[in-house]
Specification:
Number of strands: 26
Shape: globular
Largest sheet: 8 strands, antiparallel
Strand order of the largest sheet: 3-2-4-1-10-9-11-14
Radius of gyration: 25 Å
Helix content: 25-40%
Bound molecules: 2-deoxy-2-amino glucitol-6-phosphate
Number of helices: 16
Strand content: 15-25%
């Protein structure tokens, strides 16, 4: 998912746009480019690969002296990563430059039409079709705004676009949004545009989030917005409290490592102010109309909707809600939900779980549930994100900005938010919430800090096993989703093929993979009967010469002489143990990724928020 940034004002645009792109690089790093409008002319510089390449090209040949420009980091969908396919994309007559995040689904049809009219195409992108389409509308005379408004009528698909033109009387940017996020930022005599606030926090905290169908015209005097009907629209200004320091590495080598180490604080921030330990109450009034008396008591079924790491959180959430509230929970991949034509009515609460709040698959599942008559809530980490705007109620994780592509602190904060949600549901249905449920929360940050203190040992374990080409992760009950998450982190960060499995399922197939080259990470935590069963599975692995890395919250004695490596973590409580257990797995994946020389903050082929389906 690409990163978009734009500026119109009195400052030199290029350095400002470049710095904004450096905050958006986690959204895509296949290529990067800038364009400025100086004296009515467009000057662009683009490079394949990391932003560093664009930075050095601009150091050699600066794009200086212009107060208006656009910047883009690309995650390739149509057209291979290359300088030729990099954005900004210009039209055939080089009179406008356009940047785009999303996918134009009818681009081939539009391209055939435009080619037949003589428009030339120099790239393999779907985006160039939009550039030529707008340019063809400009031919009919009229303003850039009118041309964009007319062009988007013909487009099908997802798009956040911004365009500047040689023909504009004054410096102006015209932007349009349908799907991927786009927000405006305000300064004194300057106006900004970006895919997410992180790109602009250095300059402003005042933002407006464009709605789907909105078109905006930005000048140095501010921005005017029109809705999908072409009516002038007032969109609320929001002040974001995130501090620019939070988006720095803070002395850590990588954002991922910094964010792993921020988990104790993120958990504290996620439940503090929502738990009254004295009155033994949970307050999630942020759920708005869903928190009204009787609403949650009337809910008979919960649908948890998510993708990737958030989907693993949903699997843990199912345990929390079914065991603590005794109502059935269905967990669906956002991308698959619609295809099963889910049975939804007003007694169903759909809860979309998304760090970014912008994952297209999760958003489409949330919309599918709402359109079938379900109630809709979300757990998200980003204020103002789309998920928080389509949902009736929100439970924010307060993990702070998560820059590393591999989700870590947002995951553990999601688990804490899901636990609070389950307790709140319990409370709303007249079931007791007491110290047994709440006190462990108070000990959680300390327990996570203790798990983080195992870093040196885990680095040693990574040194012993980073050459392995396959890994297996085993867990039972609440630890099964944690095994899945451990495997996903390793896949994302080190490109090692890894699978997470219910430990009991191993003997039904994956046991065939076991040999002396396959490290098996086994989670031996939680209730005695569960831990004992996993220990038997470890015996089965050792019987086939497998290598076992055991993680346990119990006395490691019985694993001595059995497991090759033993990581001990503190025990908290039945429900909160998964939050502690995942921390060493995050560190293991990180350390193995570093030892294999991988770019752990920007793993190949990935992007932080997936804004296309
Ligand atoms: C996790 O490390 C990945 N970045 C990815 O699986 C992610 O969890 C998924 O894309 C969902 O993102 P979201 O939570 O922002 O919706």
């Amino acid at each position: 998912m690409c990163g978009i940034v734009g500026y119109v004002g009195h400052q030199d645009a290029a350095p400002l746009l470049l710095e904004g792109l450096s905050r958006l690089e986690y959204r895509g790093y296949d290529s990067a480019g800038l364009v400025i409008r100086r004296d009515g002319e467009l000057r662009a510089t683009k490079r394949q690969g990391k932003l560093e390449r664009l930075r050095s090209a601009l150091a050699e040949r600066p794009l200086a002296g212009a107060g208006c420009g656009l910047g883009h980091t690309r995650w390739a969908t149509h057209g291979a990563p290359s300088k030729r396919n990099a954005h900004p994309v210009l039209d055939s007559f080089k009179r406008l430059a356009l940047i785009h995040n999303g996918i134009i689904e009818n681009f081939l049809e539009l391209k055939q039409g435009l080619s037949a009219e003589g428009w030339r195409f120099d790239t393999d992108t779907d985006t160039e079709v939009v550039a030529n389409l707008i340019s063809s509308r400009l031919e009919a005379g009229g303003s850039l705004l009118a041309a964009v408004r007319s062009a988007v009528q013909a487009i099908e698909g997802m798009y956040a676009i911004a365009v500047i033109s040689t023909g504009s009387e004054h410096d102006e940017i015209v932007a349009a949004r349908h799907g991927p996020p786009l927000l405006l930022g305000y300064g004194d005599g300057e106006t900004y545009l970006a895919s997410d606030a992180a790109a602009l926090l250095e300059h402003t905290r005042d933002f407006t989030f464009l709605e789907n169908g909105d078109i905006a015209r930005l000048t140095s005097r501010g921005a005017v917005i029109w809705d999908r009907r072409g009516e002038a629209a007032e969109r609320p200004r929001q002040r974001l409290l995130w501090d620019p320091v939070q988006i720095e590495k803070g002395g850590y080598k990588h954002f991922m490592l910094k964010e792993i180490h921020e988990q104790a604080q993120a958990l504290q921030d996620t439940f503090s102010g929502r738990v009254d330990f004295e009155r033994q109450e949970v307050d999630l009034s942020s759920l708005g109309p869903l928190a009204e008396p009787g609403v949650l008591a009337g809910i008979e079924r919960i649908h948890l909707l998510a993708c990737g790491t958030s989907w693993h959180a949903a699997l843990v959430g199912k345990f929390f809600i079914e065991q603590l509230v005794r109502i059935p929970v269905e967990v669906d991949y956002g991308s698959e939900y619609r295809y099963r034509d889910p049975i939804v009515d007003h007694r169903v609460l759909a809860l979309g779980i998304s760090q970014s709040g912008e994952t297209a698959d999760t958003l489409s599942a949330m919309t599918a549930a709402r359109d079938r008559g379900g109630r809709l809530a979300t757990i998200s980490n980003v204020v103002g994100s789309e998920a928080t705007r389509i949902a009736e109620g929100v439970v924010y994780t307060h993990a702070g900005p998560e820059i590393g592509v591999a989700s870590t602190k947002a995951f553990t904060s999601q688990l804490a938010a899901l636990y609070l949600f389950a307790l709140y549901l319990r409370q709303a249905r007249g079931l007791v919430v007491d110290a047994e449920h709440l006190d462990p929360l108070a000990h959680l940050p300390q327990a996570v800090a203790e798990a983080l203190a195992r870093e040196a040992q885990i680095t040693e374990i990574a040194r012993n096993h980073f050459r392995a080409e396959n890994f297996l992760y085993l867990g039972r009950g609440l630890d099964y989703p944690i095994a899945l998450e451990g495997a996903l982190k390793l896949k994302e960060i080190s490109y090692i093929h890894a699978e997470g499995y219910p430990a009991g399922e191993m003997k039904h197939g994956p046991i065939a993979l076991i040999d002396a080259n396959l490290p098996v990470v086994a989670l031996v935590t939680g209730a005695r009967e569960v831990a004992d069963k996993v220990t038997s599975n470890i015996h089965e692995v050792k019987a086939r010469d497998g290598i076992v890395i055991a993680l346990t919250d119990r006395d490691p004695g019985q694993l001595m002489g059995l497991a090759d490596e033993i990581i001990t973590v503190p025990h908290v409580s039945h429900y909160l143990q998964p939050i502690v257990d995942v921390v060493p797995l995050q560190l293991l994946a990180y350390q193995i990724g570093v030892k294999r020389g991988c770019d752990v903050d920007q793993p190949r082929n990935l992007a932080k928020s997936v804004t296309v389906e």
